Sequence to fold (328 residues):
Amino acid sequence: MESRVLGRTGRQVGVVGLGCWQLGGDWGSVGDETALDVLRAAVDAGVTFLDTADVYGDGRSEKLVGRFLAEHGREGITVATKMGRRADPHVPEAYTLDAYRTWTDRSRENLGVDTLDLVQLHCPPTPVYSRDATYDDLDTLVAEGRIAAYGVSVETVDEALTAIARPHVATVQIILNILRRKPLEAVLPAAAEAGVGIIARVPLASGLLSGKYDEHTQFAADDHRTYNRHGEAFDVGETFSGVPFDVGVAAAQEVSSLTPAGASTAQLALRWIVDQPGVSVVIPGARNPQQARDNAAAADLAPLDAETLDALRGVYDELVREHVHSRW
Fold:
């Protein structure tokens, strides 16, 4: 698999990674052995970047990644986790050095490591990105050896641009996919100029861009695609990329019609992200080993041609733009 430098971490990572949210919860039930099989399949297929968070299953995702690392070994694998959502997400004052130490100590234990490869602030309140103390505290964690590098996970392009301006921010994780194109305008160019890595999350728009759903599709009660469609639990942009489900289904059907022979719609969607200048790694999730292998294989597709890119832009402009472009 093609590798790229992950921003200011200096680490080389494969362009398709694995998002591990679904191994912790919020996507229906995934058993421990299935989760470990997903991790094995992904790494066997060339994945070298795993993205998790301390709140995914209240630490379950981190612990499963830790079990996998103990079995497989850490060499050549970069693990990114996140911190901050254990606090009240609406209270900037909760983001303190003492809290960071407590959260990272818990993640270090869950993952079975002394030093975390990369820790990202997990979509904190917007003011947190602008405070000098935030970055001073994160620098302290690096100096103490708790973390090797830090980044941010953001909801909006403005939050991303605020963080990119800071000299030690290594990465920015942001929603980027065929149905969420706004980061292409300013975030990716700014990150590339600053040497900041871009981690593209929600690449399949919560599965919409798999092309498998229609307006009648039902999801489990414990799946965020059921309980967060209107932002009841967290930012609605994290569910179907903030696109109304019926609109997303229609757009995904148009995208499916553009899928090249020998590829899946999901692979087309992942390849589109890999092709964007400035992207370091895309992190699709997988609920079974075959999905993990299929996602990794997107890196083997040829870059999309100009005709396909123009058609995909048209799908966004005609069906999706009005619902999302001004919001994030």
About this structure: The radius of gyration is 18 Å. The longest strand covers residues 169-175.
